[in-house]
Amino acid sequence: MKTIKNIILSLAVVLGFTACVNDLNVTPIDPNVVQDFDENALFCKLYNAFAQTGNKGGGGDADITTDDEGYCGFFRTLCVLNEFPTDAYWWIWNNDGGVMATLTLSWDAANPFVSKLYNRLNYGITMANLYLDNTKDATDKEHLARRAEARFIRAYNYYYMLDFFGKAPFTTTVDMQTPDQIVGKDLYDWLIKEINEFMPEMYETTGGLVGIYRATQPAAQMLLARLYLNAEIYTGTADWANAAKYAGMVKDNHHFDLAPNFSHIFMGDNDHNDAKCEMIFLAQQDGQHNRSDAGSQYAIAACRTEGMNDHGVSAAWGCNRCRPELVMKFFPGKTRSEVIALGNGHDEFTMPAVAGDDRAMFCQKADAGFEAEFCGCYHGNGQLLKSNWALCKWTNLYSDGTSPTWTSYTDTDVPLIRMSEAYLTYAEALYRQDPTSQEALEALNAVRRRAHASEFTALTDEIICDEWLREFYLEGRRRIDLIRWHEFAGPQAWPYNWEGRGGAQVCSFVGEVCDPANENNSSDKDATDQLVAPIAVDAHFNLYPIPSSECAANPNMKQNPGY
User: What DSSP state is assigned to residue 363?
Assistant: First the structure.
């Protein structure tokens, strides 16, 4: 992280938005350069740090010290560490430093992606502390709301510290003291108390003085719901009742609703199309004024190649592909061979009808550079052969069929909290208390009805865990759900396996031999369609390590077990 010294009144104006303060369209700042305190600029930067990686837009003057600014943004680091190690997708640029370790659950304390996220979260906490230090004498309603929002942003970053690392360097002010460590239940308890303290001072919902990009009470309620949903992981004691309570508050809030069209949530005009009702907390992206390679640009460009359908942005990196397990979640009861045949020649516009689910936005067209096969087998030299299903959930096109004026960067805002999370949290929390709950069934089926997917008549553990993936793949959360269902790491997770998990050789079909020299390992020849024996991944991988550089710089931070 950049060294921050003497910054109680340290701000620099370097980049602007284009409208009113109410929508956060003021000039964000770099809190590392000594200038006079500019409250509006810093308030904007609190939110802008969820969307950009630095102060120039698209790259330059990075917020944190990094070898690759494009990799260090908030949303992208969530995707790398929450989805690369899971059954969601595979990053085929596996020579990027640290990538292979994240794909195969074999990272260590020197992994660069771990430090990128750790530093990004600490940066957000530091900025929030800076704002709070300099506005503590405010008494009017607007400033009290702004301070509550700053506390929300600080809590949101601390929540991810708890989830990824199980501990954090803890401070609620900006000073030169070395922060003490706060661990597990203590951080959880502080977050619950903190959110309940500031939430009443937030605006109840967007509208009036509050633009759509400012956090309101429903965002805080959903942060509480997230904490309570994972309470057993964080503290050892479950709290399903409170998870259901706070998720239910949001679910029943008439200011929000499930968007009628799932695809519109991830389009370039999602700040004003009919998906706006779903958005509880957004990171703004604007192709002209608020640009980044780490927000929706990442989610779109990484999944596209030349020859695929127009996606509204010129970038097409072609480095992200489905793992077979993701696609199979949309075809329950089908073998891999059957799914290969069903998907052959289809793209993101026709695949949903094949799968019977609007969320199955995949491309498997040969003329787009994809063969009609799944990835073949992972082996120890770091290759994953023929990963040929593309994820096309995100696009920069507009819902009215038009294209954006600016195509170098995306307009598609990133929903950090959206309404369907309230529904699925409510469903799971009720189910955990009563597996026969009809309310739980109805809440989950409401999400499926929106996607025009067939409804379930009863719920199971597997159904709920899989539904989280179907609804939220490529949104940076899959690891959290797998850990909660004891399917990520540790001996309980062994019965569920996916390609590349644990770094061992895994083949798509029983009986195949992984031959690194043979690109034809993958085929639809064997209908048994089972992965080889599950791979043991030690339970310590359920938490990431404290970066080795942080342990060296801060003796108060103790390393997590196993690293």
Answer: E
Q: How many CB atoms lie within 10 A of CB 317?
A: 16
Amino acid at site 463: I
How far apart CA 229 and CA 33 sit, in angstroms, is 40
Query: How does strand 180-183 pair with strand 167-170?
Result: antiparallel
User: What's the rounded Cα separation, in Å, for the pair 129 and 173?
Assistant: 5
Mean pLDDT of 58-85: 86
- What is the Cα–Cα distance from 76 to 263, expressed in whole angstroms? 20
Q: Give the whole-angstrom CA distance, residue 298 versus residue 154.
A: 25
pLDDT per residue as tens digits for the range 529-552: 444 455 789 999 999 999 999 999
**Bridge partner list, 322:** 89
DSSP structure string for 225-238: HHHHHTHHHHHSS-
How far is residue 263's CA from residue 364's CA, in Å, rounded to a whole number? 18
Two structure tokens written together for 396: 């920069």
Q: How far is it, in rounded angstroms, from Cα 462 to Cα 530? A: 17
Maximum CA pair distance of the chain?
71
Please compute the mean of the pLDDT values over residues 389-409 and round it to a whole number: 92
Contact 515, 384 (CB under 8 A): no
Res 34: pLDDT: 46
pLDDT of residue 364: 85
Both tokens of 153, joined, read 């942003």
Q: Which ranges of 379-508 would DSSP assign to H, the alpha helix?
A: 419-433, 438-450, 461-472, 478-484
Name the token pair of 82.
């929450």
Of 487 and 535, more confident: 487
